[in-house]
Structures are given as C-alpha cells and as structure tokens.
Amino acid sequence: MRKRMTLLAVIAASALALTGCAGPNPAGDGASDSASKSPFTVATDVSLTGSPTFDAMTKRGTVKVGVKEDQPGLGYLDAATGERSGFDIEIAKWIAASLGFSADKITFEAIPSANRESAIVNGDIDFYVGTYSINDKRKEQVGFAGPYFVTGQGLLVAAGDKKITSEKDLAGTTVCSATGSTPIQNIKANFPDTKTTEFDTYSQCVEALKDGSVNAVTTDAAILIGYAAQDPDNLKVVGKPFTVEKYGVGMPKSDDALRTFTNDMFTKGGDTWTAIYNETLGKSGTKVEQPKVEAY
Amino acid sequence: METLFNNLDLFALGFQNTLLLFAVSAVFALGIGIVVGAMRVSPVPVMRAFGTLYVNLVRNTPLTLLMFFFAFGYPKLHLLKLPYTTLAIIALSIYTATYVAEVLRSGFNTVPTGQAEAARAIGLPFVQTMTLVIMPQAFRAVIPPMMSVFIALLKNTTVAAGFSVAEAGAIRANLSERGEPAILVLLWVALFFVILVGVLSVLQRYLERRWRVLR
Questions:
Q1: What is the reported pTM?
Q2: How is chain A split into domains, by residue range?
Q3: Tell me: the pLDDT tens digits for A114-160?
Q4: Which parts of the sequence belong to the Solute-binding protein family 3/N-terminal domain (chain A) (predicted)?
C-alpha cells in the first residue's frame, strides 16, 4: 500500500512538473483590451440576398471563421487565457459585425495553411482570415475578398547576426519555413545555394532559429515582425520584402454576394481599417496604407 | 492525372525519400530488434532487464514524440550535428525495433523449450543456440506479424514530413500551396502507398512459401 502511494506521489509530482513547462506567453496581448473601444459596431437588420454562406450563418446563429493561431500580431491564441488577438482576428470580427454578428457569436477555428482550401470548399468554415495570399491558382478553388493587407517575403534572423542583411546573403545558410509553403518553395527554386529546413509551424522554425540549428526563418514579413516584436532581444527582421503577397479573405468561390459585400466594407471602412491596424500590427511602429480592393 | 504529371518532380522526390527512410530504418530496426529480442530471453538478468526497460519505454511513447525529441531536443544538446533525415531514421529505427523485438520473442516462444535444452546439452553456447536452433524456426513462425510491423514502418515514415524530411507526407503541403486540390493529391499519395505495401505483401508470400516446412 505504501509503495503504491509513493508511486502515485511521484506520478503526480512529475505531472505538475510537466504542466509547468507550458508557461503563459507574455506577448500577443495587443488587442485583448480593445473590446471596450471597438472601432466598428454590430450592424442590425442585415440582408444579403443570394449568399448561401450568409443564409447558413443566419440559420445557425453563429459565424465560423477560420484563422491562424500561432502568428503574434496577426492571428494569435494565448494558450494561458484562451484569448485570440491580432490584425486578422480583428478583421474577422469586423466582417462578422458588418454581417450582424457580435464577437460572442463567432466560433474561431484554427486551420493550418495546407487545409485552407478544403476547409472552405467543404463548408467547415464560413470564411477564412489568416495571412491568406491571393493568387490565381487558389482562385480556381475559392473566392477572395480584398486584399486587406499587402506584405512580402522577409527574413527573420538572430539579433546578433551581422552576416545576413538581406536575401542576397543567403548563400550557404540554412533557412526555415513551414512545410511546403510558398516562401520555402521560392527559396528552393531561386536560391539554389541555400539549404532549407521545413517544420509544420513557423513557431517551430523560430525555436530552431533560437537554438542555432537554422540561420534564418522566412515567410511574409508581417508574420516575422510579430515574432520579432515578441522577442526583440533575440530576433530581428532584416532587409526589405522581396516578393509581393496580398492577403485576402477566403470564402466559397460561388458566393459572389458575400465577396462583393466584404469588398464594399473594406472600400468604405478606411477609418475602421486604420483603427484596427493601429491597435494591432501598427504597435510595432511601422505605418502602412490600406491597400485598394481588387474586386473581380 | 494532371495533378500527378505537373508535379512529377515532387512525387518522385517524396517517394524516393520515403523509400530511403523505410529501407535504412528497416535494416536498423531488424538489427536492433534481433539483439533486443535475444536479450529478453537471455539467461543474464541484467540483459533481460535492459531489454524489458527499452521495449516498454520506447513502445509506450508516440512516434511523433520521439521525432520531436530528435528534431528539436537533440540539437539543443549541442552534440554532433546530424541532418534531419538521419535523426528521423534514428527515431524510426528505435521505435520499430521494439515491435520487431516483441514479434521475435513470440516467435522464440513457439520453439519448444526442449530444443533449447537439447542444444545446451550438446554444448552449444547461448549465441549459437539462438542463431543455429531457435532463430531459424522462430523467423518462419513470425513472417506475417513481422511484415505487418514493416508495413507499419513504411506508413510511419510520413510522420517525418513534419520534421523537415521532404518525403511523401510532405507532398500534400507543397502541392496545396501550388493550388492543387488536396484530396486528389492525397488520393495519388495513397495509391502509391497501396502499391508499395502490395510489394511488401508479395515479399511476405514469397518468404512464407520459401521457408515453409512440412511438419
């Protein structure tokens, strides 16, 4: 009996020790206290004819939004508080509000990059806001509203790194990004002297950068700025973006009504856009203009 | 069809790496498995204890966790720098070896104790008792479960896709970024796996027939 109790105690102690590792992350709390002074209001009596997605939302009474949850400043889930924050999250709330749904009627679902098209096509989510670059190949499967943000491929390196100052210094280094992502395919195709490492998430790449197994992390600069802001002592973003990525809101391809609605919202809501930007990404100090909507 | 032919480079590279992971890990898993399996039935208590500890520790751990350890934990130890493919092979080998060892042990148990006693009675030491008397009979008995273990290994290699090894499991991520429909890509990947597993099944049939004895 005594032996068993000791064993139990050991197990309990090790369980405690294990959970202790997953400590709260201090950063990424940017927009969590913005609920009181929200830059947009929830619309009432919205009617949107010819939009099956909107009909489904109304019937269900909630909005299902696909997001990212490991990108500080854009789409981030604080594991300790369960609070989501970031530019993309606020944009999603703005769209939902314009459609007449308050923030508590939104169900966020984290969808990794590789599953976005299938999630939209299968109707698992109503729309997707999560660093989703608009391109022609994707337009064959899904519809895009926007763009609501423009960025480009950038480089994140260790704060003490003096060798890598732009993409021209990548020869002979090891660069990390998400498995199969466009940035890593770009590196493989156009920077043949650069070695690549691919993990499932950017945060794993950032870990690898911190422990020195890779020299740089590459993806859209907006995402990298978020990581650098989280840990400015160890990380920095170098160079200028060397590609152009336009973020759009992903939605079912056939739903032209919802797409037009969202595009109009972006076009008319310049002030709201600026307010959202200043509260989230703008905190890093960079100023940008809202991109012009490219309706198609 | 277009999905396949437009991206043949990626499919070729992916399955090439899958086969590499499989072949090298299979050899190491079989080697380690035979040694550990033998340890578990050896007359030396320390060896038995070590074998039991290893099997129960590793077999009870998810493969993803092992991969995590080798891909993210090992570099932090700042030992010899190893490429991610090597690390994945190590993880797959030590993981699969536990199953190989257990399958073999069940094979050893099919050989009547009298044979081991007889071998010892004519003066054979433990290693020779195993290699000359027990193992040839044990192997024959365990071909079907052993092949299952190797088929599982072949499919387990896809876990490495998340740890910077560009094998078949990574094809979908690459192609969905190129805008190919994910479900088609997955069907193609699945088809190739069915073919590969088919080859292993044929090998199993061949070995079973070749090593069959009339009793």
A1: 0.73
A2: 32-151+246-284, 153-238
A3: 788 889 988 899 999 988 888 888 888 889 987 999 888 999 998 88
A4: 62-284
Q: How confident is the model at residue A27 (pLDDT cuts 50, 70, 90)?
A: very low
Looking at every residue in chain A, the average pLDDT score rounds to 82
**Residue ranges of chain B whose CB lies within 8 Å of a chain A CB:** 71-72, 75-76, 81, 84, 161-164, 166, 170-179, 181-183
Contact between A115 and B75 using a beta-carbon 8 Å cutoff:
no
Q: Could you report the per-residue pLDDT of A209-268, keeping only the tens digit for each?
A: 988 888 999 998 888 888 888 888 888 888 888 888 889 999 998 888 888 888 888 888
The superfamily (CATH) of domain A32-151+246-284 is Periplasmic binding protein-like II (3.40.190.10)
What superfamily does domain A153-238 belong to in CATH?
A: Periplasmic binding protein-like II (3.40.190.10)
Q: What single letter denotes the amino acid at residue B176?
A: S
Nearest to A180 among B71, B174, B181 (CB): B174
Does ipTM surpass 0.95 in this model? no
Give the chain B residue whose CA is nearest to the CA of A210: B76
Q: Which CATH class is domain B16-168?
A: mainly alpha
